[in-house]
Structure to design on (96 residues):
């Protein structure tokens, strides 16, 4: 099963996001409620929605942790941060 995060990130598999979440946590990147909620949304299997404030917090945390990640994980963190920033301006972020 995959999750569509938005135009920058696109759809990623649940396994990819699960692995990414563990790496982000190991690098000390889960520093906000918004990022915690973002990673938790991938556990349900149904479309989830985050409020604009959560999206903003997730974007900030992802921007902070991105330099500590490597390769595809860094690219994913940056793409997720861009989608989160766009969602925060819209006021909500629906992850399908």
């Amino acid at each position: 099963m995959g999750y569509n995060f938005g135009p920058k990130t696109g759809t990623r598999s649940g396994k990819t996001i699960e692995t990414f979440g563990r790496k982000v946590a190991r690098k000390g990147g889960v520093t906000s409620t918004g990022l915690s909620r973002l990673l938790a949304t991938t556990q349900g299997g149904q479309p989830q929605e985050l409020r604009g404030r959560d999206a903003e917090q997730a974007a900030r945390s992802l921007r902070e942790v991105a330099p500590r990640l490597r390769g595809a994980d860094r690219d994913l963190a940056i793409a997720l941060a861009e989608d989160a920033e766009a969602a925060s301006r819209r006021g909500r972020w629906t992850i399908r």
